[in-house]
Amino acid sequence: MTGRKHDPAGAGPATPQPIAFHRTSFFRATAIVALCILLVVLTSQLMGMRHMTQSIRDWTGIRAVEATKGMSTSLAGAIKFGRPEAAQPVLDDFATNLGEDVLGALALRADGTSLASVGGDGFDMVAATALGRAAMEGGTALADEAAGLWAYPALYGGQGEPVGALVTQWTADPRIAQARRDWLSSAIFSLVVFAMALLLAAVLFYRNLSRPLQLVADQMNQVALGDLEVKVSGGNRGDEIGRIARRLERFRDNLRAARATQTENAFKSAGVSNSGSALVLLDNDQAIAFANPACERLLMSCAPAIRNSWPGFDPAKLAEHPAGRLPGLGAPLTDIRNGQKAVPCTLDLRWGEALISVYIDRVDDDEGTPIGYVLELKDISSEKLNEAVLKAIDRHQLRVDFDSAQRLTTCNARFLDLCGLALADLQGVLGPDLLHRIDVSEAERAESREKLHKGEALSGKFKLGRGQGEVYVEGSVSPLIDRNGEIERMVFIGSDITQSHVSMREAERERRETSEQQQLVVDALKVGLRKLADGDLTSSIRQPFRPEYEQLRSNFNQAVEALHEAMGAVVQNANSISGEAGEISNAADDLAQRTEKQAATLEQTAAALDELTASVKSAAAGADQASQIAATAQGKAETGGAVARQAVEAMDAIKSSSKEISKITSVIDDIAFQTNLLALNAGVEAARAGDAGRGFAVVATEVRALAQRSSEAAREINQLISASGGHVKSGVDLVDRTGDALGEIVTSVVDISKRVASIAASAREQATGLNEINAAVNDLDQVTQQNAAMFEETTAASHALTSEANALVEASARFRVDMPAPAGPRRRSRDGGGLAAKPAAQAAAGGETPTRRSSDRDVSWKEF
User: Fold this and answer.
1) Which InterPro entries match (predicted)?
2) pLDDT score, position 96
3) Distance of CA 252 to CAs 13, 293, 366, 655, 672, Å?
């Protein structure tokens, strides 16, 4: 890459000097990239090799854990029963299938001696034996990862007790060596990729760095030669080359601006002369050097007032006159010249009726030396008047300014305080969104918008759509029209009426609520009185009234409640009287009927007593026959004893059969052991197959689990058969006890025969007592005839009382009252010699006591 040097003498560009290749930025950048890529590739390869080696060791450990655990479970039976012929083939297949990964395997008995083993020169038999014994003693798996040894205790039986141990030794060295050979091939391929990437980086550096830098250097040389129209390339880049190009472009633009300054100064004088602002130029001595036409027109309008202090004043002949002769400018200009007053500054002067604002500033040359002053005069009489009016409005009214698009631009402090927001929160808000006109229809609101667009003012009440709380204002929106008849901006002037509006609204709402509450009270009383007139004493006014009407509701409810209680008592007493009268009437009818039937019943009772006497004699004869039956039962009990002995012999036969069945379970256990060995071999084959044998490994695991469950089931069957033998033995004992019980039954039958003879003697004594009871029944028949006549009179009186009670119930039925559920008819005990004696006599005669029956009258006196 070559560069260009500028001649210090300004004679032009010097002869390009070549740059050594090893010093170019292209070479240095390429070398840096090559070094960085080489470091990244070497680091990644070394870390990958380290990670791969660790992964191989971890995977070898996982396989060792799974295989050792499975082998210990499969060989538990062979270790338990000391069967090396079953364990050795399994270990051989295990070592053959896994190849170089396994150095050896060792199966230990419970006493720590070797049952079977397999392995070459690398297998550490001593360390394996020690680790297996430690795992067996602790009852848990142990591992020596440094030596590659894993040991698992062999558990057998339902309790899972250690019966031995299985130890395997693994190595990951063959796989690590293969991984290193693969890594070497990968490293060679990475070097090839590195060379290609370095070539690509060199091409990219040349196109994106070296070549653009050379172009920028050539463009800088052209600018130095004065070519300010040269196009600078690379300015859109975001790197250092782009920064250089952009700075070169600004340098070129600054040179262009310097050239344009001369042209600009030529326009300044014309601009001052033709400016609409009143400008006065003073020299360094504050004498008037120039006044533009706009200034002459302003001074002409104020000439009468200026002539009072400057006689002979002529606005057209101001040159060379001191500016301090203008009213009010002398002292300020003197202070500015003496340095007592800083510039720029603004003065307000009163020239007659006009208020003039004078802006004074100093003019310096390019080196900062003062060369004069410039004064800008402006008639601000109208502005001051408008400002005073606006200040008055801002102090007492709300003011909001909107632009031609009806968006808020500014507002006074009173409006901001009313909204509770900052000006930044309101700027840009549309007028219709801020001021919502109220108390008008949609048609009137649309008509108001049309008038506003035509330039007419809009007045009324508005609700603020922004701010805190509910705020109402009243005022008018006035559009300001420009010279073209277009709306330039809009101004809202109004006042806060929130308190008065809310008060009026609350008063209207309270009036409306009062009217509604009064109507509610009248309607509730109307409904309550109508129900009361209809006889409904359960209705009350539940809906609460306003506090001033709540006493009326309470009084009405109390009156209805008092009437309800009184009428309820009447209804309840009427029902009670009616029920009692009906009960008395029914009782009288029942007693009359019973009295008529009582005489016949007594005759039947006498006949029944005779029959009872004969029955007692017959019972004595039956007792003799019972004695004979007891003797027969004794013989049958002896026969039952013989049958019980035969049952004992059958139980012994069942016990012998159960012992034969237990031999079958041992055969099932052997089958489960062989199945477990086959599943272990299948698991080893699946492990050697890798990922392709995962599904088969799952099946082998399930088969091994099934064999384990079969072995456990055989042991459970053996336990059940043993328990069954115990139950048979218990059955034999129970049958023996049954024979003893039958002997005791024979003794009890003999005793029963003696007691039946005693019962016959008692029956004869009862026959004598029954004859005396027959005489008492005849006397009772006479008393019953007298009671019959008395009950006929009672029946007539009870029927009359029932009729009067029914009339009282019908009169109280037109009133609706809430009554508690009836507890059932009340019973009155009637104690009398005639009523109580009859049931007692029937019970004594052996008759059946009448039971209670339900009827339409709830409980009938016929039950007694």
Assistant:
1) HAMP_dom, MCP_chemotaxis, MCPsignal_dom, PAS, PAS-like_dom_sf, PAS_4
2) 86
3) 18, 39, 21, 122, 99
| pTM metric for this prediction | 0.29
Structural contact between residues 845 and 609, judged by C-beta atoms closer than 8 angstroms: yes
Following DSSP, what letter does each residue of 664-679 receive, concatenated? HHHHHHHHHHHHHHHH
**All domains in the chain, ordered by first residue:** 275-379 (3.30.450.20), 386-496 (3.30.450.20), 584-790 (1.10.287), 833-863 (no CATH)
The residues near 589 (Cβ < 8 Å, ≥ 6 apart) are 795, 861
Distances (CA, A) of 236 to 227, 231, 254: 21, 13, 19
Cα dist from 549 to 541, 545, 555, 643, 832, whole Å: 12, 6, 10, 99, 64
**Residue 335 in contact with residue 373, Cβ under 8 Å?**
no
Q: Which residues of 175-208 are buried (b: 16+ CB within 10 A; e: fewer)?
A: bbeebeeeeeeeeeeeeeebeeeeeebbeebeee
Residue 684 has pLDDT above 70, yes or no: yes
Tokens representing residue 71 in the block: 């082998």
The Cα–Cα gap between 289 and 303 comes to 19
Those residues with Cβ within 8 angstroms of residue 611's Cβ, 6 or more apart along the chain or in another chain: none
Which residues lie closer than 8 Å to 856 by C-beta, 6 or more apart? Answer: none
**Predicted confidence band of residue 864 (pLDDT cuts 50, 70, 90):** very low
Cα-Cα-Cα-Cα dihedral sign, residues 378, 381, 382, 387:
positive
Strand partners, 377: 278, 358
Helix (H, G, I), strand (E, B) or coil at 162: strand
The token duo for 568 is 């309820």
User: Is 563:535 a contact under the CB 8 Å cutoff?
Assistant: no
pLDDT at 623: 63
8 pLDDT more than 60: no
Q: Are 179 and 53 in contact (CB under 8 A)?
A: yes
What pLDDT, in 10s, does the model give residues 481-495?
Answer: 877 778 888 888 888
CA distance 204 to 184: 30
Six token digits for residue 856: 């339409």
Q: Does the structure show a pLDDT above 70 at 826? A: no
The pLDDT score that the predictor gives to residue 399 is 86
Residue 828 reports pLDDT greater than 50: no
- Residues 386, 383: Cα–Cα separation, whole Å: 5
Within 10 A of 355 (CB to CB), how many other CB atoms are there?
A: 17
* Residue type at 798 in one-letter notation: S
Say if residues 728 and 647 touch (Cβ distance below 8 Å). no
Q: Nearest CA to 812 among 591, 549, 564, 467?
A: 564
List, in sequence order, every residue forming a beta bridge with 280; answer none if it has no partner: 291, 375
